[in-house]
Structure formats: structure tokens, C-alpha cells
């Protein structure tokens, strides 16, 4: 009997279908493993060669699954052509990785003093990774043989700690089935390479991306709304921090002069530095997502290839004449008003819209600032009077404590801070044509491609007397553990 189903069998599963006994057995195995975190860290490596991959063969092949281009990687000392066919991840394997990346795990503690900026938290829904102001600004795009998917599980929480015992393990698969949305029925064209000859020409993905997006792989691509981070930091920096955005060309306030006085806005902060701050906050969140995926792969015995040396605006779809990418929309900007010459991604309409002005969803400064502000106050949110999220979710505070929080004036953004933020955004849009102006409001720069490891590559080239250190016990035992009854296509005779 084989545990786990390949993509061709599971991708059309009804979203509400419950995990079966075979699925639950694997989920229990994942949660009940006694391998310590420190042991995983000791062997954690990037393993780039999976089943069905190639390296330096010097042979031409056609990327029929994506770009349709004929591509050749010149022959070299690590020439390798996998003798095995690709083996896609099973539904359970992929569900575990998506949950590890940024899945639901309960209710955050929200242990921020009311006088210390509690109202700056965008959400109280906990995930497996931290984020700036818990804004949940990063979603996971999943690319596999069945196409492109968005993984965005619910923000509702059934308990402060969602997984507290074996009876909860099935939630991981339920969240995966319910929280995915298919965006395309095929792998995207990400354009390796763009030159007509396929060799020493412009290669926006870089020469190291030859096996990116291969059949059999699952490419996990965190896509973040830097604009949401930017607008939230602006509003609550004005409310709590006392600094204002300053035009770096003039050293004058960026549209917020009337609020510069003691007790309101007092210290100037250059707009480009603030834009960089939003980008750094985003990068920290994505780094945690990627590391969680790597650790989960190490535990499962899968290969995790961490990669980021590609042009993410191209992957998102900024240059459709080169590669269609994921098909996101971009703003046409005046080069003379674009100080950093950055692209400005508007997002994927109706799927993931960036908080950026102007855009179809946010045509002006007021619509964007008020949208971000109301994320915590609208009915159903954690600071709402109607259908309060915290009461519904069982935490983090007792009802009497929550009532005190809701009654306290410092739990709410001031009208003046909202007005000052709107004025600042209007100033930036008037000067540069959009806001944020110096950074792209949607990024997808760091990602992980996951695959079943081609052991033969590491046995051929690695040190270790036929048992190279790249092949951990989890990798050597993977097929026997996670695909019961299935033959390991790369294990040597006597070890499969």
C-alpha cells in the first residue's frame, strides 16, 4: 500500500473533504517525530538536485512545461542527467510544508501595552511565523504540476492553540484544502533565459536557476504586500513615534506641516529611509517563512532549494514581452518622477491587491489610509464592538480585560494622525506619481523549491564513501516512511 496521493489524484479534492485514515497516519507521524530542532539544524542544507533534474549536460531540451524555449546548459564537471522520473509531492507533504510556512496556529498573545502601541497590531490571528504588527501581509503562492495556487488559510481561529493533540492534526490538511485557490492550470513562464540563443545572453533568472520550475517540483513563493506594511507603519508612527516623513530633496515636511509641534510630530525622517524600513520588515517576515519550510523539509527528508537570485518583478509579470510570469498588474510610471527607477506592482486583481496609491482598489490617499486603519476596527475585527474577533476566538484576554481595552482611548488611532498620514501620502503621490514611491509595494524575492532528492547526484559527486553527508537518514528513508510500498527510484540496490 502507498501512503499519500500524487497531485493528479488530489488536486480536485473537494475543499470540505475530511482527511482519511491514511492521511491522518502521516500527519500523526509528522507531529510525533522525536527528531530535535537542534539535530535538524546540524544537517540543514540547500539541496538543489531533485528527481528528473539536470546539470551541465550540454544537451538541448525544450522547457515545454513553461516557456517553451529550447535551453542548453553547457557541459561541465558536474554533468548529471537524472535517471529517474520526477515524483511530485503528495497532498500531505505539500499541506505540511504550506502549514509550516505560514499556517494557522492559534491566537497571538497581543502582549503590547495599550500605551505602547497595542492598536498598531493589524490582526490577532496567529500564524507559524511572526510579521510586522502581525499584518499577515505575506501569502504563499504554490507552483506545482497542476498549476499555480494561492495558499491563504482562514484567519478564523477555533482555539488559542489550534494544534494541541492528535485530534487536531487533521486541521493541517483541512486548511490546505480549504485555503487554496487555483489561479492557473499550468506552470508559469518565468523566462529562463531571455536571450534568443539561450546561452550568454540576458538571463533575468540567473544561470543558477536552470532547474527552477521543473516538473515534479513544488515551488513555494512567498509574495508580500510591502504597501500594507508601509501604510500601517506610517499611520501608527504618526500616532506613537512622533516623527514625520521628510522630502529628502528639500529637508521639508512631506505635506504634514500643520501637525509639526510638541506632542504631535517632532522629528523628520526621510521618505527613502522609511521605504527601506518597510522593505526590511517584509524581508524579515519572508525569511521566517523560508526557514520554516527548510526545517520542515529537513524533517520530512525532502530537498529544499532556497533561491532568490532572480528578478522578482519579472516573475510577478512586469515584463510580459520577456516572460508572462504570474500575471500581476503594474503601474505605468513617469521615469522622471521615479527616483529609484523601481517597478510598482499593483497586485493580482481580486486575488492579492497591493496597498498602493493610485490603484484600482485605492484610487486616493484617503481610501488606502482608512482601509488599513479599519482592519482592526471593522465589524468582526479584534478591536470591534460588533462580532468581536477575540471573543469569538477565545483569547488572548479575558472578556473583562478586553472590555477595558475597547473602552480605552489609546486603543484607537487619532483623527489627526489619520489626517496627517493622508496629507503625507497625497504629497508623495503628487511628486512621484504613486505611494510608496521608492520601493515596489509587492515583492517575491526569496522562495523555496521543494523536491524529492536525486540521491544518485550526491552519491556520484559527494564525499562520504558512497554515503555522502548530503543524504541524511530522513532522506534515505523518505520513500519507505512517506510513500509506504513505493520504490525509491534513486536508492542503490540493497538500500531501497
Describe the overall structure.
There is one protein chain. The protein has 496 residues and is α+β, with helices and mostly antiparallel strands. The chain has one domain (7-482): NADH Oxidase. The chain has helices at 7-10, 21-32, 37-43, 91-102, 171-178, 226-240, 271-300, 312-316, 365-374, 389-393, 399-407, 415-432, 455-461, 473-476, 478-482, and strands at residues 54-55, 60-62, 70-72, 80-81, 104-107, 125-127, 138-144, 147-151, 180-184, 218-225, 243-247, 252-253, 267-270, 303-307, 329-330, 345-348, 352-353, 442-443, 447-451. Strands 7, 8, 9, 10, 14, 18 and 19 form a 7-stranded antiparallel β-sheet that branches. Strands 12-11-13 form a 3-stranded mixed β-sheet. A hairpin with a 3-residue loop joins strand 16 and strand 17 (352-353). Helix 9 crosses helix 12 (415-432).
Short description:
The protein is an alpha+beta fold.
Strand percentage = 5-15%
- Straight-line N-to-C gap: 16 Å
The CATH homologous superfamily is called NADH Oxidase
Q: Supply Rg.
A: 24 Å
Which runs of at least 5 residues are low in confidence (pLDDT < 50)?
Answer: 1-5
| Overall average pLDDT | 92
How many DSSP-defined strands?
Answer: 19
Oligomeric state: single chain
What CATH calls the topology is NADH Oxidase
State the helicity in percent bands.
25-40%
CATH class wording: Alpha Beta
Structural class: alpha+beta
Amino acid at each position: 500500500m502507498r501512503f499519500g496521493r500524487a497531485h493528479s489524484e488530489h488536486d480536485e479534492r473537494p475543499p470540505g473533504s475530511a482527511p482519511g485514515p491514511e492521511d491522518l497516519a502521516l500527519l500523526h507521524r509528522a507531529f510525533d517525530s522525536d527528531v530535535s530542532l537542534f539535530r535538524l539544524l546540524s544537517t540543514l542544507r540547500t539541496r538543489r538536485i531533485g528527481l528528473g533534474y539536470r546539470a551541465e549536460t550540454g544537451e538541448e531540451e525544450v522547457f515545454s512545461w513553461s516557456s517553451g524555449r529550447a535551453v542548453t546548459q553547457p557541459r561541465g564537471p558536474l554533468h548529471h542527467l537524472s535517471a529517474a522520473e520526477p515524483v511530485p509531492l503528495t497532498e500531505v507533504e505539500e499541506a505540511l510544508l504550506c502549514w509550516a510556512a505560514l499556517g494557522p496556529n492559534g491566537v497571538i498573545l497581543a502582549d503590547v501595552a495599550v500605551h505602547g502601541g497595542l492598536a498598531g497590531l493589524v490582526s490577532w490571528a496567529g500564524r507559524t511565523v511572526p510579521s510586522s504588527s502581525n499584518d499577515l501581509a505575506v501569502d504563499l503562492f504554490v507552483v506545482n504540476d497542476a498549476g499555480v495556487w494561492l495558499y491563504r488559510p482562514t484567519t478564523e481561529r477555533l482555539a488559542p492553540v489550534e494544534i494541541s493533540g492528535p485530534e487536531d492534526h487533521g486541521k493541517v490538511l483541512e486548511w490546505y484544502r480549504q485555503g487554496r485557490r487555483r489561479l492557473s492550470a499550468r506552470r508559469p513562464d518565468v523566462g529562463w533565459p531571455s536571450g534568443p540563443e539561450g546561452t550568454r545572453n540576458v538571463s533575468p533568472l540567473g544561470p543558477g536557476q536552470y532547474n527552477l520550475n521543473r516538473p515534479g517540483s513544488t515551488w513555494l513563493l512567498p509574495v508580500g504586500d510591502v504597501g500594507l506594511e508601509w501604510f500601517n507603519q506610517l499611520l501608527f508612527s504618526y500616532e506613537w513615534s512622533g516623527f514625520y516623513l521628510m522630502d529628502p530633496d528639500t529637508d521639508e515636511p512631506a505635506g504634514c506641516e500643520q501637525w509639526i509641534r510638541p506632542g504631535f510630530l517632532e522629528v523628520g525622517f526621510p521618505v527613502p529611509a522609511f521605504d527601506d524600513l518597510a522593505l526590511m520588515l517584509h524581508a524579515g517576515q519572508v525569511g521566517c517563512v523560508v526557514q520554516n519550510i527548510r526545517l520542515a523539509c529537513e524533517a520530512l527528508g525532502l530537498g529544499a532549494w532556497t533561491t532568490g537570485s532572480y528578478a522578482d518583478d519579472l516573475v510577478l509579470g512586469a515584463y510580459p514581452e520577456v516572460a508572462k510570469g504570474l500575471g500581476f498588474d503594474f503601474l505605468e510610471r513617469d521615469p522622471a518622477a521615479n527616483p529609484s527607477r523601481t517597478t510598482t506592482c499593483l497586485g493580482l486583481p481580486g486575488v492579492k491587491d497591493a496597498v498602493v496609491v493610485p490603484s484600482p482598489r485605492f484610487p486616493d490617499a484617503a481610501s488606502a489610509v482608512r482601509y488599513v486603519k479599519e482592519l482592526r476596527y471593522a465589524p468582526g475585527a479584534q478591536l470591534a464592538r460588533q462580532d468581536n474577533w477575540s471573543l469569538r476566538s477565545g483569547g488572548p484576554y479575558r472578556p473583562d480585560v478586553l472590555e477595558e481595552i475597547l473602552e480605552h482611548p489609546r486603543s484607537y488611532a487619532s483623527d489627526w494622525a489619520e489626517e496627517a498620514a493622508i496629507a503625507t501620502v497625497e504629497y508623495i503621490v503628487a511628486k512621484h506619481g504613486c505611494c510608496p514611491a521608492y520601493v515596489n509595494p509587492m515583492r517575491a524575492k526569496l522562495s523555496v523549491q521543494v523536491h524529492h532528492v536525486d540521491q544518485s547526484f550526491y552519491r556520484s559527486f559527494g564525499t562520504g564513501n558512497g554515503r555522502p553527508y548530503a543524504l541524511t537518514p530522513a532522506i534515505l528513508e523518505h520513500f519507505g516512511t512517506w510513500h509506504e510500498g513505493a520504490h525509491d527510484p534513486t536508492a542503490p540496490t540493497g538500500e531501497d
